[in-house]
Amino acid sequence: MTNIAHAERDHALLSASGAHRWLHCTPSARLEATLPDTTSESAKRGTLAHEIGELKLQKVFSGLTARKYNATLKKFKEHDLYEPVIDQHTDMYLEYVQKIVHAFPSPPYVAIERRLDLTEYVPEGFGTGDCIVIGCKQLHIIDYKNGQGVPVPAENNPQMMLYALGALRAYRMLYDIETIHMAIVQPKVWDQPSEWSIPVADLLAWGESIKPIAQKAFNGEGEYVVGSHCGFCRARNTCRARVEQLMSVEDKAPMKPPLISWDEVGDVLRRAEGLVSWYNGLKKLALAEVLKGGNVSGWKAVAGRGSREYADLDKAFEHLKANDIDEAVLYIKQPLTPAQLEKELTKNVYKELLEKPGHIISKPGAPTLAPADDPRPAFSDQIKPEDAFRDPVGS
Length: 395
What we know:
alpha+beta, globular
């Protein structure tokens, strides 16, 4: 069977990856469909990582020949967006899948990049499961994520639950399945995958509960609801509901007494969360509109601050040295940080040569404010504000 490149695959209106959004904000999917789908460099690198991960699974579990594997991997590594850490991270993905497979008393069924029919629960819904493992009344759904900006936990993850429902529909006639295990391998965030399990009966009940919501979303009906799910929505910068919430402060202006309470501070922080990133995103959209000849009232495009570069770096430096400029003046020598070295050496080499011998000291991060539903534990040590924000020694 010929695999379709990840970037060329069709996408459903109600995508499983966007379920956390359209389940909360039902009209958002139809609104997004009216807007262009732009792809960032990090998203393209994620697609490349997925393809490399799939290739490695195909070699181990689907009998891909060594010749075909090596030729394809070589091609992937020649891609402009390839970086060595992708090889390490996809190895971690493969090793996790192997661990799951080898835990079965007899070889389980393994499906790689299986297209899943979700139409029983979501109108015209479909998706692609990265890896499915079935055996001993257990069904494993394993998903690889290359991003690092937003941790994606497996627990109650609607994308994974939809994939599980699709896998049940595909395989339940062939296998007796009682428990679903979901795992998200996100190496840039966690050393170990995020895992969660749910009985089949509970998953099916959840599937029934979302049917009317999915139908409403497919019809483009309902109210626009603003929340953390807005983060990756195409309409996030120009959505009227979000703009009005971000800019809505009129009910805070007449507060008495003159100083707002800490309860009110919490509400203001919640309202203002994302304001800076929204403003920058909207400004970027407006610039693009002006550059293509559009009109944004009261704004224009101007040349930004320029920069200088060498016409030929080698010739320039040779000329300077020929004129008695010491080479030490031309270069800055500074050590890479532990994080930079980990990326250069790969995580395993970094641990072996630096962490295990005790050359690295891990220091806790400074306290930072987060919403109450943030999965990280609350900072428990009592600390004085002046200590938390004191400048480092020697700065």
